Amino acid sequence: MDALAVLTDGFGRVKEAVHEAVDGLAAQHLELRVDPAANTIAWLVWHLARVQDDHVSEVARREQAWTAGGWDRRFDLPFDAGATGYGQSSADVAAAQAAADLLTGYYDAVHEATLAFLGSIGEADLDVVVDRRWDPAVTLGARLVSILADDLQHAGQAALLRGVAERLLQ
Fold first, then answer.
1. Which of 101, 151, 156, 169 has a CA 20 to 30 Å removed from the CA of 47?
2. Containing domain of residue 113, as a range?
3. What is the model's pTM?
4. Does some domain include residue 78?
């Protein structure tokens, strides 16, 4: 299996994890906070999708699905259209409310855009430097693995919260 096939498989696993964490949940589950400063399932999934959309769009040099697909209007969140969740406050987390189908719909759009990008590049492209602000400079391969790792962490957090929410809100 080549590196692009591994990345494609990895992003497919993120999609599965997102759906497993979100599908069929009511607002009370998606918005549950286990303490006043905790993230919610809704915020975690919105955030992981926004980061993937933002970062992949940047290296693909294309508009984000968030704005190109009108997801920013559908979510109607009280944030700037460029917000991805980094540096947001506890109040911002609470404001990130969305239905399960909206969350998975947006993630699925981001996933499809990610797969299209992966299908448009060759394995040699993974060695291209995409960010010189770091030492060492970040290659496309390292950026994609970073996105994948971040997504899987947040999807796992959302899955844990789903289990907690289902027990607490029976």
1. 169
2. 1-90+108-124+158-170
3. 0.96
4. yes
